[in-house]
Amino acid sequence: MPAPCRSMIFASLLIAALAGCTLVEQNRQIDATQGRIDTKTVQLTQAEQEQAALQQQMQSISTDLHQKQMSNKDLERRLAKLQAANQQAATDNDAQRARKRKLDAELTQDRAALAALSQNTTMDPFEQQRKIDQLKADIKKRLELLAQMK
After folding, report:
1. Chain-centroid distance, C-alpha 110
2. Which one of 58, 98, 107, 117 has the minimum C-beta count within 10 Å?
3. Domain count, the chain
4. DSSP structural state of residue 1
């Protein structure tokens, strides 16, 4: 076979391989984006539920004010309690969001490491399988932690 033909065949195979790698990377990015969207959707639902509960408490206080004409001290005490609950909810949400972001980042790193390890052809197969099993266990543990946070 002439050298130009071999070069063209090699170039064609190289282009096809590069296109496949690009598609795999785009698919991984889509999966990661969908995971972030799902996380944000859950966070939004939780925040809306907390907001609804706080709104209901405020409505209850307003109703009590009009119906019972509560004293200033009682009103201040209930408002302080509501503000403290509101601040605690905001603090808890920030801490929980930070922990979720950290777990998501660790999961992304583990998935990338697992993909790289799975494609490694130079490593001892037994060592490679041991590392893959360890990464899978780490991923499972992080997923369980994320599930507990919901």
Report:
1. 13
2. 98
3. 1
4. -
Rounded distance between C-alpha atoms, residue 144 and residue 48, angstroms: 24
State which residues form the domain around 123: 3-149
Tens place of pLDDT for every residue, the chain, 150 residues? Answer: 677 777 777 667 767 666 666 666 777 888 888 888 888 898 889 888 888 888 888 888 778 766 665 566 765 676 677 667 666 766 667 777 788 888 788 888 888 887 888 788 888 888 888 888 888 888 888 778 777 775
Please give the C-alpha separations between residue 54 and each of 68, 77, 81, 104, in angstroms, as whole numbers.
21, 16, 11, 29
Region of 69 please: left (phi>0), alpha (psi -120 to 50) or beta.
left
